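In the design runs reported in the main text, the only information available to the sequence generator was the tokenized backbone. The following block is the verbatim input for one such run; it is reproduced so that readers can re-run the procedure and compare outputs position by position.
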């Protein structure tokens, strides 16, 4: 598409710049309530009730739903028996009505141009939308007489049909909204509305089943509500990143087991990893920032940084013990000797994170790295020697064994 547009611009002598528009947001709105059920009218009633709950909840704004306002609709029903007696085809009635409503090309006029011009038959502009003028149009019967359409149709007043939306082949009604104010996270508004929504009366007299992750397995037995929007994106993001975090920890454990030849030492080395929360969570609260997916990425990176610091301490202790230094003295020396390189590398990582601290997307990563490294570095110098001393003070023979 881009080369074709550029070629057209070159032929026209213009400098054409093709700009790719990024795809739209993956969700309809920050807060989305999907209403499932067996009856279309029942789903619509529940959606209107859910919308009313949205409207009375503080901080919930820009409320809308997938239904449309009731609008009058007039149906023209052909009297097939009478039309057949007069020899009037139904297609002739439909074509005449279409010509009166939107116009119809009766013939084409040819001149010196390349394309013929259509001669369109339609009602005068002043009679567009006039039902009486439309019914006065006539069609020719089998005998050649003109019969007004009024005599061949009956009028039926009804309402405009409601749109039917589907998701994964299930009929659904949407209620969407956004959050505004001091607390702009959609999760707070969503959980605040749950109680009022659960108390809504259902058309079938049952209870409204609530789903958070998956659609209802059987949407035809009763009415159900599935929460979607940013909640779904948040759940899937942290679910996948949490799984990646777990896999990373397992791989780190296996790697340390292979290096030290022990199943206990990796547990001691990885013990400070949860200490990153002590720095990450207060750091976000101190700067008034939300915990985002990039914050989770920072925590994953912190796991590797902490393990590196712990390995430096444990490896130094083992080297000192094998060199004949008493175990208690080796514990103290490890913290004293390795403190400077550990602190310097931590400061270097923190200074690098300062450059993305004001970024609207990666500020969570920066906060996690800055506060997580600051707290975990200090605690690692205390926790690792203490835990290692407690784990191996009665097993010095293991430390004296060759690596």
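Verbatim output:
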């Amino acid at each position: 598409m881009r080369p074709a547009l550029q070629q057209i611009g070159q032929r026209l002598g213009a400098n054409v710049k093709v700009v790719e528009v990024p795809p739209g947001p993956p969700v309809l709105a920050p807060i989305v309530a999907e209403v499932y059920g067996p009856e279309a009218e029942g789903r619509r009633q529940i959606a209107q009730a859910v919308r009313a709950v949205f409207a009375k909840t503080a901080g919930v704004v820009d409320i809308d739903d997938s239904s449309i306002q009731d609008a009058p609709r007039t149906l023209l029903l052909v009297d097939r028996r009478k039309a057949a007696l007069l020899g009037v085809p139904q297609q002739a009635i439909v074509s005449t009505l279409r010509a009166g409503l939107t116009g119809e090309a009766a013939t084409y006029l040819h001149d010196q141009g390349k394309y013929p011009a259509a001669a369109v038959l339609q009602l005068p502009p002043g009679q567009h939308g006039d039902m009486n003028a439309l019914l006065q149009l006539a069609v020719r019967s089998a005998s050649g007489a003109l019969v007004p359409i009024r005599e061949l149709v009956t009028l039926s007043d009804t309402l405009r049909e409601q749109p039917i939306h589907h998701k994964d082949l299930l009929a659904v009604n949407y209620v969407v909204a956004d959050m505004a104010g001091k607390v702009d996270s959609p999760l707070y508004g969503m959980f605040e509305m749950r109680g009022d929504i659960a108390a809504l009366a259902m058309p079938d007299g049952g209870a409204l089943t609530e789903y958070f992750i998956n659609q209802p397995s059987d949407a035809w037995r009763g009415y159900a509500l599935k929460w979607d929007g940013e909640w779904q994106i948040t759940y899937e993001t942290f679910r996948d990143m949490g799984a990646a975090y777990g896999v990373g920890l397992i791989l780190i454990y296996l790697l340390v087991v292979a290096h030290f030849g022990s199943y206990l030492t990796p547990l001691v080395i990885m013990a400070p990893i949860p200490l990153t929360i002590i720095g990450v969570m207060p750091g976000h609260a101190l700067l008034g920032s939300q915990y985002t997916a990039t914050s989770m990425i920072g925590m994953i990176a912190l796991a590797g940084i902490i393990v590196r610091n712990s390995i430096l301490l444990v490896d130094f202790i083992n080297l000192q013990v094998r060199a004949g230094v008493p175990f208690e003295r080796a514990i103290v020396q490890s913290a004293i000797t390795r403190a400077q390189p550990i602190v310097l590398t931590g400061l270097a990582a923190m200074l690098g994170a300062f450059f993305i601290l004001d970024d609207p997307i990666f500020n969570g990563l920066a906060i996690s790295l800055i506060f997580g490294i600051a707290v975990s570095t200090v605690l690692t110098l205390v926790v690792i020697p203490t835990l290692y001393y407690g784990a191996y003070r009665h097993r010095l023979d293991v430390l004296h064994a060759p690596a």
